[in-house]
Amino acid sequence: MGKKVRKESETSCKETFEPLPVEGKNPATVVLLLSSPEEDILVKACEAIHTFAEKGDENKVSLLGLGALEPLCQLISHSNKLVRRTALMALGIMATNSDVKSALKKIDVIPSIIDKLSLEEDVVVHEYATLCLASLSVDFVCKVQIFDSKGLPTLIQLLSSPDPDVKKNSLETIFNMVQDFQSRQAVHELGGIPQLLELLKSDFPVIQHLALKTLQNVTTDKDTRNTFREEQGFERLMDILSNTDFSDLHIEALQVVANCLNDSESFQLIHQDGGLTRLMEFIITPDITEIQSCAVKCIARVAQSAENRKLLHKQNVEKVLVELLSVSDVSVKTASCQAVSKMSFHLACKDRFRDLGGIPAVVQLLNNESLVLREAATHALSNLTHGNKLNAFAVYEAGGHEILVQQLCGNCAGTVANSAATLGNMAGQGVIRCSILSHGAMQALVEPLKSTNVQVLINTTQCLAMLACDTEARAELQTAGGLQPLVNLLRSYHKEVLHNACLAINVCASDGPTAVEMCKFGAVELLQEINQSVKRRSSVSKLAMTSLLNSNLSVKYSLTGHLSSTDIISDGFYDAGKACGGQRILSLEELSEQPVNQQRPIIFVNTAAEEIVDAPDESQSNELETDTSSKRDRRTSRTPLLDRKKKQKDETQPESPTEKLWKMMDDVSLQLLVKEVKESILPLSEEREQYAALARLVNEAMGGAVEMEKLHEFPWMLHLSELKFQLQSNVVPIGLIRRGIYRHRALLFKCLVDHIGLSCTLVRGEYNRAWNEVLLFTGNPSSNGSSSLPCRYIVDLMHQPGSLLKANTPAAVQYQII
Ligand SMILES: *[C@@H]1O[C@H](CO)[C@@H](O)[C@H](O)[C@H]1NC(C)=O
Ligand SMILES: *[C@@H]1O[C@H](CO)[C@@H](O)[C@H](O)[C@H]1NC(C)=O
Ligand SMILES: *[C@@H]1O[C@H](CO)[C@@H](O)[C@H](O)[C@H]1NC(C)=O
Ligand SMILES: *[C@@H]1O[C@H](CO)[C@@H](O)[C@H](O)[C@H]1NC(C)=O
Ligand SMILES: *[C@@H]1O[C@H](CO)[C@@H](O)[C@H](O)[C@H]1NC(C)=O
Ligand SMILES: *[C@@H]1O[C@H](CO)[C@@H](O)[C@H](O)[C@H]1NC(C)=O
Ligand SMILES: *[C@@H]1O[C@H](CO)[C@@H](O)[C@H](O)[C@H]1NC(C)=O
Ligand SMILES: *[C@@H]1O[C@H](CO)[C@@H](O)[C@H](O)[C@H]1NC(C)=O
Known about the structure:
By secondary structure, the protein is mainly alpha-helical. Helix content is 62%, strand content 4%. The chain contains 49 helices and nine strands. It has a three-stranded antiparallel beta sheet, covered by helices on one side. Strand 5 and strand 6 form a beta hairpin. 45% of the residues are buried. The model is unreliable at 2-19 and 610-651 (pLDDT under 50). One 2-acetamido-2-deoxy-beta-D-glucopyranose (NAG) is lined by residues 341, 344-345, 382-383, 386.
């Protein structure tokens, strides 16, 4: 602060006194003198305390300890003007110390300090009173006291005091006060804005800074902004910004500018007055880069509102941003990328940015060593390519996709997430997708799939779902070891992660091999767990489950008890019964290795016809070896599991469970049944007749018709136990079953129907019930010209074999339920 000419009155007062009688006395004595009845002693004591306190904080604390505060607080209201002034000077100096401040808080001194701000008091009193308030106002309680004691109006008046110290102290107090909402509004209501603007012209930088900081706080209020604008505040700021001598004020000025432009109404008016044009000019003028990056940040902030973006777009802000991308400073480039991201919400902006050549410029930044810049650049690209094919193509043409794939391997979570999001946006176009994949995207996505960062997981799984839309890509993911981490994401409790993981799994399940692999990693069990939670399950988790189960009908039937007419049973299918809640479905191999037990047998289906001519015989001569093995390969290619085990066979060892299973493959009876079906049923002309004939065939194969009342006499259970015992296995080939009931017959029916290209469902009921439903056109078409609606029928395989029971009729229901 500038040197001030001391006021005459003060000088003359000092001169009227004798040489200081208290000088040289110890502080304790001086403090005692504060209680003297003699005014001239009081004055001298206060002066001595002032001088002593000014020398340092230790002195202030010791004066506090000596009890100087209480008498000083009294003396500031003394009737003698000189006593008041010197006491206040002493108090002002002491109050700058934090211990003193705390002590003062407990004394109700603020109202009497505010009293001293009256116009009757001289400027020195004003100076020290405001100094006290400036010190005290950092404290919340004191702020409230100042406000309640009506200090603010006076302080605002004092902003136009001729004395710079008074100005500075008052301003500092106001700045402290406007940190709170109450005072922020009051400053504007009390007409403080013109005063604050006036202070911007001060010769003292400290006053200018404080004024700007105060304006920064108060212009967060909308009414204040209106007044600010009416008082030409924006022009004042622009004057500061265009004056290079004031570059130390530019950052603070820009913060105020950003506030002013925040609401669209102000923005519009400022724009009309050409304020925006001036601002753009300021931004591109080469200047101190810190200020430039702050200016761009200001733009980014302003671009948060949709209306502002529209105006900025009209003002061609994109051109400025593209130019700034080639400025050498990293922070300017970074801020520009951030502004581009914000502006991307405005659709037209994305196109203009591309037309101005901005996209290759951002792609270029992906190579920079600055992590922060790369993160901002990838973010800008993810926004620019969102829902914009031409931009996606521009990134592709600039070679951005290749660098983005590389970014997936980085350590910065934000960059990885943004890169994945961008690649996902780009993958919608086939050409680009192929190119992305050719740069190893699938391999690169595996690590991010193991991330613990939620954003990374969300974007990566989304990108994966976009990229994995052809068999080759899915195979690559599998080879790269990506399926396991993907399946593991089904453990996530994050809604979006889980959602996207399900989507990706759904896509990947379109191929048998990837679906099988995901099942191996426990995908079905995890999805079952999800299905049991009302919170976690969703339409996509169900979709993923369905897709996976469609690749494994044995598991599907076990879990859902329902195969639709489009689910075609093939060799290797097994019915292991209804799955117990949450349990893993064992493989056929595992089931066949279990010791024979009392439970229902597992029914196994294999129609492989070549077995008849090529009965496996390990003792065959060498010359036949190649022949058999090739046939065996052909056969077992449908069930790789068995083939693999077969090769391990050693003749000298006793039969292993796997061998038993392998032998069981030969279901000669089933093969004969299939043959008969093809010969006798396929040629029938009427569908209805085909189903009926097939039903009779199944009935005969499994022990003939059984009267409903005599069902309990039908010895099916004994028969199955015997089979298990003979085979020494819980797994029974369906063709061997000579006495079967609903469950066995319905499975055989479904199996034969699927084999000859008819269609039916297979539905599991309770207590060994199961049935098939077929769809037939009813009535006779000749009597009614229009073709009738199809009707659902339950096929009777048990009691009146071949009857078709119309669904939902009592007869049908009786067949389905005990
Ligand atoms: C007031 O402005 C200063 C910067 O001058 C800032 O640090 C502070 O957070 C603002 N206070 C409020 C309450 O906005
Ligand atoms: C600026 O506008 C945004 C939304 O448009 C709002 O969230 C923010 O609080 C505003 N800031 C100021 C200082 O008014
Ligand atoms: C990264 O940006 C800085 C600042 O613009 C520049 O000096 C540097 O050459 C850039 N690095 C690369 C590898 O492009
Ligand atoms: C830009 O990205 C952010 C975060 O990634 C996102 O919230 C926002 O919706 C995106 N905006 C546009 C226009 O794509
Ligand atoms: C991608 O990740 C970012 C975080 O970097 C996130 O804000 C954004 O919403 C994500 N984008 C998409 C398209 O999911
Ligand atoms: C999923 O849960 C529902 C309701 O609990 C159940 O009806 C359905 O069978 C379950 N689906 C599977 C595939 O487990
Ligand atoms: C079906 O699931 C079972 C049980 O998990 C498994 O052993 C079998 O290999 C799967 N089959 C196919 C074709 O995926
Ligand atoms: C044929 O049957 C359908 C449904 O049973 C009926 O709506 C339609 O009127 C009938 N048409 C004729 C020509 O009888």
